[in-house]
Recover the amino acids of this structure.
């Protein structure tokens, strides 16, 4: 106790910022992640290569992009699992347009799925604002409604035959390496798109009024209302944003697989939610960072990859992810409870 | 005097209009389905197949209803049923020797089923601990355990199907007694038990109270954690019972059985008058809703509609039902305030 009085101003600042880092769950996840990577690399040298790292990043692009949108919704309103269906609708519409008219402007190819995603997301939020039931119930309903509709409308047919630029774009490597057998690998454009989305979201969450409103709404909806935050509008923004991001994820996914299959995306919604929760996003709302979410996605992908490298059968993977998830929510919730007790502040309830 | 009583009944009916309408909705569905399937709907075979399928959805719906009553949701109902089911199937295939027969086989099967139900109680306790003690939101807690339980099921089955269960056990799911499928009796017993619990015991009263105002309950000195634990454990027990019926009916167990029941369980529970925000529940209403939804489901199947069309229908219907529920709640409020005046 006395030593803290003795520290000079500069030292105190350093200490405080150090304590700040130590209080963040992302810090601990980073350490656990690093330990896992080091251990796996020691056991299997093929795991800890740059090539494997880029492969892991590339294969988790869709979940990675979507999970950033899921984070935004989770911070302010609850759990949305309908975005995979939204992405499917957006992707199929884009594929129909691009294959039907190969000469269509690139801007339109990008804009269409984003706008469709945004519209469907906003519709979810409108329903939520109107009906005032838990978000998960509306999202279960809309997941099935959108998914059933796209399956019926598409007759389950897969779409192929994208134009050349669409095939070439994801294979552009911004940083290029060549492995021993002469195969090129490196930083794919899609990974850059993922991190660009992450950066933009991070800026929105941290530095704009809307972003602060999102945190405030998740932290305490009643307090937020009394401060004059428009709850309904903030919610529409969050869900619309997730929809738009799901649209971007859908484009990336179509670029990786070069097909648009109506049944390819639905079923992955829980992976994204798991990644966000593992990344330390608040269990009761009002907290969570883009960095944590990216870490959560990479953590799960690396864990799966590592288990495969170790020769653990794939039917065991979900057990590991499930345990990681349950431990993670326990840790996050306990920390939140302790933080609340220490703060000793006034809680506003209706 | 007589008109007085009649008025009272009318008042009651108006106050519970949403529940009173359900049997009418059921009859309407039956008539519509009978006409559109040109009387294939009302055959003995179809009716008994409805009664055979109803218990599974019914038990899942009751499980969902309980979680909703305490202001939560239980997304892990299906994976709980499958995990308990797979463990039971594994025990039956690997532990009970094929030569066993007669009373000793029955006794051993009984032990296995007890073990399965005990495991489902345990899985429910995990949900309960996460929600009541660790204070994780029910959505995220049960979503996480759903992933974990499904993972464990996959690990036990190695992603395959366990099949070839002992004959007497298979008879439980497929046999019938007095012309009615045996699983239906199990469901009736479970529904009766739940109704008594909610209506007649303090456990049920506390469950409803916790759903409507948790804070007030904590201040009145009631152990809210215990109440939540009980609710999620009973919810899981019902799922485990559904698991028993499922593996016995299919004569096999798998990690991915019955995944479509999750949406239907939410749908039926809400249609039956359970408030998704907690604090209001009608077991009778839920059972009436169950018959309606099961009849609709069976009719849709007979009509040969693709599973995706029905997926879409259920999704849209759930939203429609929530809209209808809110309308009814508003009407009720208005009517009550007029009565008070």
């Amino acid at each position: 106790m006395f030593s803290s009085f003795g520290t000079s101003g500069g030292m105190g600042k350093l200490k405080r910022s150090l304590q700040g880092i130590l209080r963040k769950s992302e810090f601990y996840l980073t350490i656990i992640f690093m330990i896992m990577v080091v251990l796996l690399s020691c056991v299997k040298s093929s795991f800890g290569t740059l090539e494997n790292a880029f492969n892991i990043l590339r294969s988790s692009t869709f979940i990675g992009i979507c999970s950033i949108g899921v984070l935004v919704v989770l911070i302010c309103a609850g759990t949305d699992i309908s975005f995979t269906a939204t992405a499917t609708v957006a992707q199929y519409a884009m594929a129909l347009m691009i294959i039907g008219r190969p000469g269509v402007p690139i801007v339109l190819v990008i804009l269409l799925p984003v706008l469709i995603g945004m519209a469907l997301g906003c519709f979810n939020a409108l329903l939520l604002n109107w009906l005032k039931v838990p978000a998960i119930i509306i999202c279960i309903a809309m997941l099935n409604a959108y998914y059933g509709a796209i399956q019926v409308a598409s007759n389950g047919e897969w779409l192929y035959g994208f134009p050349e630029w669409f095939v070439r774009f994801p294979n552009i490597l911004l940083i290029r390496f060549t492995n021993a057998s002469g195969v090129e690998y490196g930083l794919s454009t899609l990974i850059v798109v993922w991190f660009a989305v992450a950066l933009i979201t991070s800026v929105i969450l941290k530095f704009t009024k809307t972003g602060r409103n999102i945190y405030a709404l998740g932290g305490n909806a009643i307090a937020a209302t009394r401060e004059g935050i428009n709850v309904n509008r903030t919610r529409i923004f969050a869900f619309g944003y997730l929809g738009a991001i799901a649209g971007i994820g859908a484009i990336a996914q179509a670029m990786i697989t070069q097909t648009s299959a109506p049944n390819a995306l639905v079923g992955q919604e829980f992976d994204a939610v798991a990644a966000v929760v593992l990344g330390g996003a608040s269990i009761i709302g009002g907290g969570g960072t883009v960095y944590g979410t990216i870490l959560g996605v990479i953590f799960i992908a690396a864990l799966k990859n590592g288990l495969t490298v170790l020769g653990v059968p794939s039917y065991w993977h979900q057990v590991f992810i499930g345990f990681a998830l349950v431990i993670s929510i326990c840790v996050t919730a306990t920390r939140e409870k302790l933080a609340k007790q220490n703060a000793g502040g006034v809680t506003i309830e209706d | 005097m007589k008109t007085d009583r009649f008025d009272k009944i009318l008042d009651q009916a108006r106050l519970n209009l949403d529940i009173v309408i359900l049997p009418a909705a059921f009859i309407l569905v039956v008539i519509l389905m009978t006409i559109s399937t040109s009387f294939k709907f009302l055959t003995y075979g179809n009716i008994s197949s409805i009664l055979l399928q109803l218990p599974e959805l019914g038990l899942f719906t009751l499980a969902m209803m309980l979680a909703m009553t305490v202001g939560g949701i239980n997304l892990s109902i299906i994976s709980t049923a499958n995990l308990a089911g797979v463990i039971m199937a594994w025990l039956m295939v690997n532990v009970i020797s094929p030569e066993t027969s007669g009373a000793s086989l029955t006794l051993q099967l009984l032990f296995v089923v007890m073990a399965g139900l005990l495991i489902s109680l345990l899985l429910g306790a995990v949900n309960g601990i996460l929600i009541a003690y660790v204070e994780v939101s029910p959505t995220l807690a049960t979503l996480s355990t759903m992933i974990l339980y499904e993972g464990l099921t996959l690990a036990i089955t190695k992603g395959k199907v366990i099949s070839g269960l002992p004959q007497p056990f298979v008879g439980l799911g497929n046999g019938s007694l007095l012309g009615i499928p045996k699983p239906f009796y199990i469901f009736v017993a479970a529904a009766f038990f739940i109704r008594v619990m909610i209506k007649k015991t303090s456990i049920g009263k506390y469950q409803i109270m916790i759903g409507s105002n948790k804070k007030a309950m904590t201040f009145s000195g009631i152990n809210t954690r215990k109440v939540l634990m009980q609710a999620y454990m009973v919810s899981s027990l019902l799922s485990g019972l559904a698991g028993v019926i499922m593996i016995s009916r299919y004569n096999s167990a798998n990690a991915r059985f019955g995944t479509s029941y999750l949406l239907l369980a939410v749908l039926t529970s809400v249609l039956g008058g359970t408030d998704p925000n907690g604090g209001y529940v009608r077991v009778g209403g839920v059972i009436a809703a169950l018959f309606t939804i099961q009849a609709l489901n069976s009719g849709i199947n007979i009509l040969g509609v693709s599973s995706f069309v029905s997926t879409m229908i259920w999704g849209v219907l759930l939203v429609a039902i929530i809209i209808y529920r809110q309308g009814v709640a508003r009407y009720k409020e208005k009517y009550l305030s007029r009565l008070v005046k």
User: Anything to note?
Assistant: Residues 1-8 of chain A have pLDDT under 50 and may be disordered. Strands of chain A lie at 173-178, 184-188. DSSP finds 16 helices and two strands in chain A.
